[in-house]
Specification:
By secondary structure, this protein is of the alpha/beta class. It is built from eleven helices and six strands. The two termini are 20 Å apart. The model has no long low-confidence stretch (mean pLDDT 93).
């Protein structure tokens, strides 16, 4: 699909995913899972962790349990991986993806209301945005623990659009993963993909309005 001036004129709000789009945290999670498994006494590999990218907690737990048995639970894993990432960020800083700050600032300056639509937990999203100094830009944050179904279901984006006081078709959604694009498509939003660790398949490409390799310069290309 290709954007048109008419479609651009209909956009009134912007919804951003977070992990893998604004922050390079998907790679950070992959790096964190093996040491997390070591602490838990479970030989978690990056290969298995990669299968959980962009999934909600229930689906993630199912995949890990299929490989490692019922000894793995997110209830046990979350505080361990959270501490590993907290220590990493304290030492190295939060990795912000290229063009993310500039894109947020551009849309904010243009007067678009901004939302976060993430399958992550609310307190984690807030902590990351605070760490990066970006929290104040967003009018609303909708996360996986605030809705009945996470991506690829449309619930997160439907709620984010409603919180912005807009119809889904008035919202541009920036996503990095196929499940996120599917969720935005099902919600009736306008999906733009900036791939991170998961490349789009043909179905995902068909769902996307546009695909860009980076957020750098994208707002200007769309709205200037």
């Amino acid at each position: 699909m290709h954007y048109t001036n008419q479609k651009i004129a209909e956009i009134k709000g912007i919804i951003f995913d977070m992990d893998g789009l604004l922050f390079d945290t998907e790679r950070l999670y992959l790096k964190a899972w093996p040491p997390t498994g070591e602490i838990m006494g479970i030989p978690i590999t990056e290969e298995v962790a990669r299968k959980t990218i962009a999934l909600g907690g229930y689906e993630m737990e199912e995949i890990f349990q299929a490989h490692y048995g019922l000894d793995f639970t997110l209830e046990k894993a979350r505080p361990v991986i959270r501490q590993w990432i907290t220590d990493y960020v304290a030492e190295h800083g939060l990795p912000v993806r290229p063009g993310a700050r500039e894109a947020i600032a551009f849309f904010h300056k243009r007067g678009f209301p901004l939302a976060i639509g993430s399958s992550n937990l609310h307190h984690v999203v807030v902590a990351y945005l605070e760490e990066a100094g970006l929290l104040s830009y967003f009018s609303t944050i909708v996360t996986g623990d605030m809705v009945e179904r996470v991506k690829p279901a449309p619930d997160i984006f439907l709620q984010a659009a409603a919180n912005l006081g807009l119809r889904p078709e008035e919202c541009l959604v920036f996503e990095d993963s196929p499940p996120g694009i599917e969720a935005a498509h099902k919600a009736g939003c306008v999906p733009i993909m900036v791939p991170d660790l998961l490349e789009p398949c043909d179905v995902t490409r068909d769902r996307c309005w546009q695909i860009f390799s980076s957020l750098e310069g994208v707002p200007q290309r769309l709205f200037d």
